[in-house]
Amino acid sequence: MEISKKGISKVIVHVILLTLALITVVPFLYVILISFGKNVIDTSALFVREFTLENYARLFGDTYFLNWILNSLLLATATMFVAVIIVSISVYCFSRLRFRGKNQLFRALLIIQIFPLSLSMVSIFRIFVSLGLLNRLEGLILVNSAFASAGLVILAKGYFDSIPFSLDEAAMIDGANKLQILFRITLPLAKPIVAVVAMQSFVIAYNEYVIASTVMARDLQAMPLAVGLQSMIVGQFGVNWSLYCAGAVLGSIPMIVLFYTLQRYFVGGLSAISEKG
Amino acid sequence: MAFIRAFLIILVIAIGLTAVAAIDVENSSDERIVRIWFSHIEQENQAMRTIAEEFTAQTGIAVEVISRRSIFDAPRDFANNAELPERPDLVFMQAPDIGNLVRSGFLSPLDLDNDTRSRFVNAAFDAFTYKGELYGVGYSVDTSGLVYNSDLITMDELPRTWDEFFQTAEKLTIRDGDGRIVQRGTLLNPKDMWFNYPIIKEFGGYYFGQLRCGTYNSYDVGLDNEGMLEYVNKMKELQAKGLTLTNPNATESHISAEFAKGRVAMILYGLWDASIYQSMGVNYAIAKLPKGRDGRISQPLATVQGFVINRFTRDFDASLAFLLFILQDEHQQFLIEAGNRGLAKTGERNPANISVIQSPYIRDDPVLSSLSEIGSFCSPFPNIPEGPIWYNYTTTAFRTIFFGDRHGREVDAQEMLGELADAIRNDVALINQIPDQAAFSWSDYVILTALIAVIAFLAIRAARGRKASATEYFGGRLSKRESLLGWILLFPLFFLVITFYVFPVFHNIYLSLTNYSGIRLRDYVFVGTANYREIFTKGIDGLVSMFVWTVSFAISVVSLSFLAGTALATILEKVGIRESKIYRVVFILPWVVPSVITLLTWRGFLDENGLVNQLLAFVGVPSVSWLSNPLAARVSTILVMTWFSFPYFMVVASGILKSIPKDYYDVAKIAGASRAWLFFRITLPMVYRAIFPMLIMAFIMQFNQFGVYLLTEGGPPADKLGAPGATDLLITYVFNTAFNTKRYSMAAAYSVIIFCFVGLLAFVSMASSTRKVNELR
Predict the structure, then answer these.
(1) Which residue, B195, B316, B401, B592, could crosslink B268 as a Cys pair with Cβ 3.0–4.6 Å?
(2) Is B269 close to A21, i.e. CB distance below 8 A?
C-alpha cells in the first residue's frame, strides 16, 4: 500500500510539473518557431508556413552577431566575477562584523535602489563621460557590477544570516581570523546563494540594454548582444522578427548552459549545514 | 592575506581606470579630420569609406566613417556626444528629429548654392528647413504609396481618384458562400493616421497648419473640423463593408501580412516588407496615390533622411567640403546602390538626388522607379519639436471612435475629435511654456520644505536602529579594528554605489529643478520648483486609482511569484536529481530569454483570437477579451509578470531550502504533520525570513516596472484621452506624459517624488516586518 501511495503522489507531482513546464515553455517554443520561420512579419498570429535556416545564417552573415555575443560573454563573465567577489565580501561584513554605522549603511543601500534610475540616463552618461568610460566595455562592467552587487547584497544577507553563528564561534576558538572564517567556513556554506549571485549578475549584465545603448555610441561591432539585437527591431515598420528571434534563441544559450552548470550548487539533498554543524 | 591582495588589485584597477581615462583626451595634432556617423547598412558604410578615401586623396582631409546601429538613436546619441572629444562632425539622421536639435543649438545652418539645390528634389531641402533656415540635405526619402498586387489589379485599373479608390476597393472584395471575405480590395487601419493622412487631407483634416512661407503653426490643429468628421464617417462606412482591420489591437503589420498572403489588392504602405512579398510570390508594385477631387495631388507623409553638420564641429570648412563631396551625383549613385544592397534592389534607400532617380539603376526597376517618383511628390513630416505629439493620442482616439470605448460603448466622434485636437494643443502649449528663469513664490517654499521634510524623515529613520545593531549578534562591544576592517571591506561596494547610484540620484534632483527639455538640451538653467509646482497644482486625473492599482500590482506579482517559486522549489526537491535539473532549466527560461520578445509573444497569445482563447474554445469556454477588458487586462498583466519573475524566486528558494536544518522537518514529521503543514509552517516562513529584504527589492522593481507597457501599452485606455489607462503603472504613465512633451526635467521631478513615496512605503513595510522577523527568531 505504502509503495503505491508513493507512486500516485509521484505521478501527481510529475503531472503538476509537466503542466507548469508546458506553460513556461510554450512562449519560448513559439519564439523558436518564429526563428525558423520564413517571412515572418507578424508576431501575434501563427504565420510560419515554411521552415528555413536562413535566419540563423543571416545572423552570422549580415550582422555582427558573433562580435556581439563575444562582447556580451566577456562583459557578463567579468561582471559575474566582480559581483561575486564584492557581494561575498560585503555581505560577510554586513552579516558577521560588528561596526558602527553598519545597519544604517545597509538601509541606505536598499533605499538608494528605490530611485527609478533607468530613466536618468543623462546622469549615468555624465558619469561615464567624466570617468572616460564612454564606448568601453570596462565601463559597462563597472556599472553592471554596481547594479548587480547593490541588489544582490540585499538578497544574500538573509542567507548569510541564516548560517549558524556557532560555526564562526567554534572556528574563532580554534584561532581562525575573520578572513579565514569567511573563506574556510562561511563561503563554502553559502555556496547556493553565491551560485545565485553569480547567475543573476551574469543575467543582469547579459540582458542590460538601456545603459549600454546610451553609452556605447560608436562601433556596431563593439555593442553587447542586447543592444545589437534591439537594433533589429527599432524600425518603425517592417521589423524582421525571425532574425530577432533567431538571435534571441542563440543568445539565451550561454545563460542556460551557465545555469545548468551552476545548478549542482543548489540541487541535491537538504541541509548541508546541519550535517556539518 | 590572499584576500587583501585581491582587494588591493580591485582598488588599483578602479583608480587606474580613472587615471587612464583622464589621460585619454583628444590627441591634438594638425591633421584635419572629419568624422561622420552614418548607416546601419554595412555595404553603404563601405561605399562611404571608398568615397572618403577619394576625398582624402584629393584634399588631404582624413575622414572617419562610423557605422551606426540605427538611425532612431541618432538624435539622442548626437545630443549626448556633440561636444565630446569623439564628437561627430556630420550625422545621418531623420529630418523630423532636427527641430529639437536646432532649438537646443546643436546644428549648423547651411548655405548651399543653387547648383546643389537644383540637383535634388525639393523634399530634400524642405524637410531640413526649420523656420526658413536650412540645416541639412536629404539623401533618402522614406515614404509610402499605393502598394498593389498586380495579379489582382492591373496598372491600368488603378484608381485615379480617391472616390475611384473606394469604389474599386469594394468591387475587388470577394466573399465566399458563407459571406466571409476571402479577398479584399483594400485593408485600412482605422487607428492609423500616418498612411491614412492623405485621405484625411483629402477630406479637409490636417495636423499642423502651415503659414504661407512654409513654417508650421503648431497651434493650428485641424483634427476637429468638419472634414475630419466626414473622414470618420467614410472610414465607418468602409468598416461596415469589412475593408478595415477588425481586431482593435491589430496594427499595420497585420495589413502587410494579409497583403503578403495575396489576399488584398491594394494597401497604403511602403516597401519595408518587399523581400517578404517577393519570397511569398506576390507580384507587388507601388504606385502614386490617387488624386484628389479637384485634381490635387495627394502627398503621402515622408521621413526624409539626410546629413546635418554639428555646430561644435572641429572643422566646419572640412565638414562642409566633405558634405558637398558626398552630394555629388556620382557619389550619390554609388551610395544609393550600396544602400539598396546592389543588385538586390531592396528599396531601403529611395534617392533624393535627381540624377540618381534618372539613372538606369532606378529607372529600369519598376518598383524603385515608382517609389522615387512618389518621393518627388511627398510631404515631409513636420520637423518642429511638436511633431511627434500625435503619436501619443491618435491611436487611442481613433480606436475609441471606431471600436468604442473600453466598455464597448459607441462614442460621439465629434466629441472625441475635439478631445484629440485639444490634447494635442495642450501639449503644444506645454512644450512652449517651459520657464526660462527661476521664479520663486510662496508655494515653492512650501513644496521645498515638504520635500526636505520627507528626505529628512527618511534619513532619520535610516539612522535609527543603531542600538539594536550593537546587541544583535553575539554581544560584546564594537572593536575599532573590526570597524576599520568593515569599512575597508565595504569600500569597493560603496565606491561603485556612490559612483553609479548616489551621484546620478543627486544629479537627477538637480535636473528636476531646471528647465532641461527637448528644446533646451544644452543651455538649460535652474528654474526652481516650477516642475514640482505644476505636478502638485495640476495633479493627474485618476491618480488615486492608478496608485492603488500600481501598489496592488506590485504586491500581487511579488507574493504570487514568491509563493509559486518556493512551492516549485519544494516540489522539485521531491523528484529525482536528474529530472529536477531538466525541469529547472525549463523553468528558468522566462528569466533568461530577452523579455522583449516573450512579452510580445504573450501579447499575441492573449489577443482576441490568440492562442489562449483558441485553447479555451477547444474546451468549450467562451473567449475572454484578455487585453481589452479593464479587469481582465489587469489580471493578465499580473499573471504574465508573475510568469516572468517566478523563476528567479524558484532559484533563490532552491538555494535557501538547503539552509533549512533537516531536524525541523524530522521533528514535525514525528509529530504527524502533513506535507501542507510542513510547507506553510516551516518552508515558507523560513524562506520568507531569509529573503525578506529581497522581497522589498522585488516590490520596488515591480513598482518601477516598464515591461507592462510592452504588453498592454497601458490599455485599455481610460474614458478621457490622455488619462491613465487600466494597466498604466504610476511610473510608465508619468514618464510617458513627461516624455511626450520632451520635458525631461519634469520626468526627473516625477522620479524624485516617486522615490520619496516608495521610500516611505518601503520603510513602513520594513519596520512592520522587522518586528515580525525578530519575533520569529
Answers:
(1) B195
(2) no
Domain boundaries, chain B: 32-142+304-380, 143-300, 541-740
Query: Is A277 inside any structural domain?
Result: no
Is position A274 within any domain? Answer: no
Residues A53 and A70 in one domain: no
Q: Quick check: helix, strand or coil at residue B1? A: coil
- Any idea which fold B541-740 has? MetI-like fold (1.10.3720)
> How confident is the model over B313-322, as a mean pLDDT?
93
Residues B761-771: pLDDT tens digits?
Answer: 887 777 776 66
Amino acid at B498: I
Residue from the list A25, A124, A238 with its beta carbon closest to the beta carbon of B272 = A238
Spatial separation of the C-alpha atoms in residues A81 and A145, rounded to whole Å: 9
A77 plus A54 within the same structural domain = no
**Same-domain pairing of A41 and A163:** no
Chain A CB contacts of B77 under 8 Å are: 214, 217
**Are residue A212 and residue A247 in the same domain, yes or no?**
no
Question: Considering the domain boundaries, does residue A264 fall inside one?
Answer: no
Chain B contact set for A102 (CB, 8 A): 469, 486
Cα B735 from Cα B327, distance rounded (Å) = 40
How, if at all, do strands B174-175 and B129-130 pair? Answer: unpaired
Phi, psi of B174 (to 5 degrees): -115, 135
My answer on whether A37 and A131 are in the same domain is no
Highest-scoring range by mean pLDDT, A39-53, A64-78, B19-33, B707-721:
A64-78
Per-residue pLDDT tens for B230-256?
A: 999 999 999 998 899 988 878 888 898
pLDDT digit string (tens) for A52-69? 888 899 888 878 899 999
Backbone angles phi, psi at A52, to 5 degrees: -155, 155
Q: Provide, as residue numbers in chain A, all residues whose Cβ is less than 8 Å from the Cβ of B645.
A: none
What's the whole-number mean pLDDT along residues A213-220? 84
Nearest residue on chain A to B588, judged by CA atoms? A256
Residue B648 to residue A200, Cβ atoms within 8 A: yes
Nearest to A158 among B479, B507, B691 (CB): B691
Highest mean pLDDT among A66-75, A241-250, B8-17, B470-479: A66-75
Of A62, A110, A231, the CB nearest to B70: A231
Complex-level ipTM? 0.89
Are A105 and B494 a contacting pair at CB < 8 A?
yes
Nearest alpha carbon to residue A268 among B569, B647, B675: B569
Q: Which residues of A touch B270 (CB under 8 A)?
A: 237-238
Q: Are the Cβ atoms of A89 and B7 closer than 8 angstroms?
A: yes
**Residue type, position B441, single letter:** S
- A224 lies in the same domain as A102: yes
Alpha carbon of B285 to those of A26, A185, A236, B288, B363: distances in Å?
38, 73, 21, 10, 14
Q: pLDDT at position B195, please?
A: 93
CATH code for B32-142+304-380? 3.40.190.10
Residues A131 and A165 in one domain: yes
In a domain, A101, yes or no: yes
CB atoms within 10 A of CB B525: 13
Task: Please write the tens of the pLDDT for every residue from B346-372.
Answer: 788 999 999 999 999 999 988 889 888
